[in-house]
Amino acid sequence: MPAEKIRADNIEASILEKRFPELARELGAAELSDLAGLWPKLKPMTKLAAFKLLSPDRAIGLYELLPFEEQYFLFSGFPPASIAPLIEPLAPAARKAFTELPRWHYDRMLDLLLRQGDTASSAAPATRSRA
Predict the structure, then answer these.
(1) Which of 93, 24, 13 is nearest to 58 (CA)?
(2) Which of 77, 75, 96 is nearest to 87 (CA)?
(3) Which of 52, 93, 111, 115 matches a 20 to 30 Å C-alpha distance to 63?
(4) Binned average pLDDT, 10 residues per bin, the chain of 131 residues
(5) Is residue 39 a contact partner of residue 66, using CB atoms and an 8 Å limit?
(6) What are the phi and psi torsion angles at 119 (to 5°)?
């Protein structure tokens, strides 16, 4: 029997209820394309927390599937402090559910973001000013 598709409301509820290890397992088993499809429906803090619950390889895989705006948001939220309000009250052991992505992921995310930004700007109609 195929696994049940992950849903945005389940992710939101897991974050609110602080069921982070369980959510990390669900996110780890979900199809990245399913996650990318529901990503715009998530609240900002949920996006950051869910992204940090993914393994580094899955996080980059998801990032590659997202549109520029979502990539930019996640890139801006790269530092672990971006979810401080969520993890501050947690015991140190519970905080370990969240992955601190390695520096090379930051570089990869920046590279992908810049490439998508270049693609988006080159697709925009060019305007010329007349002197």
Answers:
(1) 24
(2) 96
(3) 93
(4) 75 94 94 95 95 93 95 91 89 84 87 81 52 43
(5) yes
(6) -65, -45
